[in-house]
Structures are given as C-alpha cells and as structure tokens.
Design goal:
The chain is an alpha/beta fold. Helix content is about 35%, strand content about 15%. The chain is built from 14 helices and 15 strands. The strands form three sheets. Strands 1, 2, 3, 4, 5, 6 and 7 form a seven-stranded mixed beta sheet that branches. It has a five-stranded parallel beta sheet with strand order 10-9-8-11-12, sandwiched between helices. The two termini are about 35 Å apart. The protein binds zinc ion. The site of zinc ion has 7 residues, from loops.
Length: about 400
C-alpha cells in the first residue's frame, strides 16, 4: 500500500497491492515450488489478478467464511463496508481435505504459476443460498448460477500474492491497473470521472448516455469487461476494435480513456451493479453509469432493479456516485437519440433493435440501421462476427 493518486479514495481507504516484484518475487517463486498446487477456475484466476492490483480493494485475498456469510446475507463486509459479490476460491472436496489451515499453496492456472496463498480457512460453499441471495434464483439456466453449481464444493479463504500475471492476455496495451489509471487521470487534470462498464458494442444509445454523462464531468473512462462472458455475447476482440473505431471518429481524444476490465462477468444484475461501481471507484472514478438491467441476463431482474439497489446503501460509504439512465433509442419525431425520460412520442416512432435482432442481422451480413449504430461500428461488428463464425466452437470458449 502506498500513497494513492487521485481525487477519490479507494474503497476502504487504501489501494491494495498484492503484486510481488523484484527480489521478493524471486524468493517467493523459489519457495512456491515446494507448495501444494491448487488449480484456479478461470474466474478465480481473474479474481486473483483483480485482488492483487487493487481493483477489489479492500480485499487482500479470497473470502473467509465470515466475509462470505456477511456478503451473502448483508451485502457488506464484516467491517461494515458495502460489498455485494462473493469473491471465493472454490476447490473440490478432495483438494480441501488434503490441505491444512495455515498452509501455503501455489495458485495455478493450468501449468502456469500465478500466485500464492496462505490458507486461513477451508469451509463448504453454501451454493443454494449463494444462488438465491446473490443471483436471486436457484435456476441452473442462469449462467452465473450454472457456473456456481459447476465449481468445487469447498472454498479456501486467505490472503494472496500475485507472482505472475495471466498468460496470453488480450489487449495488454489497454490493461491499465488501478494505480496507473489514477495517474493517467491526474496527468490529464481530470478530477471528476465517469466510468462506463460494458460488455456490448457501443450503439448510438450508449454513445448518447456516455456523452450526456460526460457533459457534467471532466473525463469518461470507457471500461469494457473482457473477462469471461457467456458464449452469445459479442467477442471481446471485436468489441475492442469497434470501440477504437468509434472513439477515433466521434469522441474528443482528450476527454476519453479506454481501458479493459479483466473481471469475469457474473450476470448477478443489481448486486453486480454495486460491485462494478465499487471496482471503478478503486480505479479512481467518481461517477458510475448504471443503465437499465445492468449486468442482467434473461428475465431474472427487473428493468430498474440495478437502480433501486443503490437506495439500500449509505451513499457516503459507497463513495462513488451512480448516474441512472433509462431506456434510450432514436426517435424519428424527436429527430435524435432520446430516452423514455425525455421523449413524449410512442414506440412506432422509435428505432430500436434487441440484442438478438442485432446478432441475426450481423450474421446475415446486414448493416444495422444508422440511427441505431454508426456505420463504422456496424462494419467492424459484421466482419468480426462473420469471421468468428468460421472458427470451430471448441476454440472459442475457455470453459
Ligand atoms: Zn420522440
């Protein structure tokens, strides 16, 4: 932990740094060779990195039972700080049985040593309760719940250190850590920064929301999630190319920073909206855009549940200011992009496509209507999707 640059304090006051470097890292690598090896799930591997770089401050490791219970039942950490998503290290019961509390373990992604951890505790996961409380459903059709049910039945809690970052990362040049992002904001003289979380291309509606928010702050941090997502989301490399294209042609370069958010998507809707906001506070953002059905999937959450949940928290202890946006679209009568909050006209005048319609049009090689998506973006998406379809399914997804 060191002096933190930026106008907003990290969650809990200090930016966590659990990345070992230099001689400390060398010594740890040497010792870790003798440790029992524990395999990380792909989500735990990304969580390890997020913890170590401070994106999940104040967490310094995977959750202990007390933290896990408190977060599930009360949406706060034991000390009273808001926190809504369990960050856990799941293992099979047999793996847990072989480990003792107090033991040091090597955290592996396949054959790649990523980190080390002192096992403070091992305890059984309470999957049904976690599903019900965090995801608001026990149905396996929910992708977050399905992943939860698939993973090991035991959890290891304890502090971690990162020794090696993940292998073969995409977009290394956009992978700015929270401390770097804070310095970049400071060097641009930005004091008030709005973060936009996304796992989708930027259609005109998103551009409208981002630019409306930008009117009241100094800078926009466009922070697409590039960790694990579900198979039918648009692939991250295609999305990144579309972001770079639209930023170049339609956004002021000195007011926008693009970085990637290496977290895995949970699809936990309202709870994940809070989690996403807290992580962006750690990156130094003062404002966070929450759209309709933020981090949602299917019909599991109400359209505005991710807005309402902010009312359940003390705004001072949350720290970052949410900016809520409504259903946004192009209206022919208004002659521009507007929202349900600002347009008095009816559906017949609106141009809006569902995610499924967008995907189907792109797969057929059709340009999206330019009131909906800028042609430059349509072209990138269309080419990306069509090339992608020629890749065998097995090479596309990690899990
Ligand atoms: Zn209108």
């Amino acid at each position: 932990m060191g002096r933190v640059v930026g106008s907003i304090a990290p969650h809990g006051g200090q930016l966590v740094n659990r990345v070992l470097r230099g001689e400390l890292r060398e010594a740890a690598l040497e010792r870790a060779r003798a440790f029992p090896r524990v395999q990380l799930t792909s989500m735990a591997a990304s969580d390890l990195e997020m913890i170590a770089v401070g994106a999940f401050s104040p967490l310094t490791g995977f959750m202990t039972r007390e933290q896990y219970d408190s977060v599930i039942d009360d949406m706060h950490l034991p000390g009273g700080l808001p926190w809504t998503i369990p960050v856990t290290l799941p293992v099979a019961a047999e793996t847990a049985a072989d480990l003792e509390e107090g033991q040091e373990i090597a955290l592996m992604a396949g054959e790649h040593l990523m980190g080390m951890m002192t096992v403070a505790e091992k305890f059984p996961a309470d999957k049904q309760r976690e599903a019900r409380e965090v995801y608001r459903t026990e149905e396996e059709a929910h992708p977050g719940v399905a992943r939860l049910y698939r993973q090991g039945d035991w959890l290891l809690g304890g502090e971690v250190f990162l020794l090696n970052g993940p292998q073969n990362v995409e977009f290394p040049e956009l992978r700015h850590e929270p401390a770097q992002v804070r310095r970049m904001f400071a060097s641009r003289g930005w004091r008030r920064i709005v973060a936009f979380q996304t796992r989708n291309p930027i259609h005109r509606a998103h551009e409208y929301i981002q630019k409306t928010a930008l009117e009241i702050v100094d800078g926009l941090f466009l922070h697409p999630l590039v960790g694990e997502t579900k198979a039918d989301d648009i692939p991250a490399d295609v999305r990144i190319e579309s972001y770079q294209t639209i930023l170049r042609d339609y956004y002021p370069a000195d007011r926008v920073l693009l970085g990637v958010f290496p977290a895995a998507m949970r699809y936990a809707g309202p709870r994940e909206a809070i989690f996403h906001a807290i992580a962006r506070k750690n990156y130094g953002c003062t404002h966070f855009i929450v759209g309709r059905d933020h981090a949602g999937v299917g019909n599991y959450y109400g359209t505005y549940d991710a807005h309402y949940i902010f009312d359940e928290f003390d705004s001072a202890s949350l720290g970052i200011t949410p900016l809520f946006f409504d259903y946004t679209f192009y209206c022919k009568k208004c002659g521009g992009v507007v929202s349900a909050k600002t347009c008095p006209h009816s559906k017949e005048d609106w141009i809006y496509l569902s995610g499924t319609q967008v995907r189907e049009m792109l797969e057929r090689g059709e340009m999206l209507p330019q009131e909906f998506t800028r042609p430059e973006v349509s072209r990138v998406l269309m080419n990306g999707i069509r090339q992608r379809k020629q890749v065998p399914q097995s090479e596309e997804q990690g899990e």
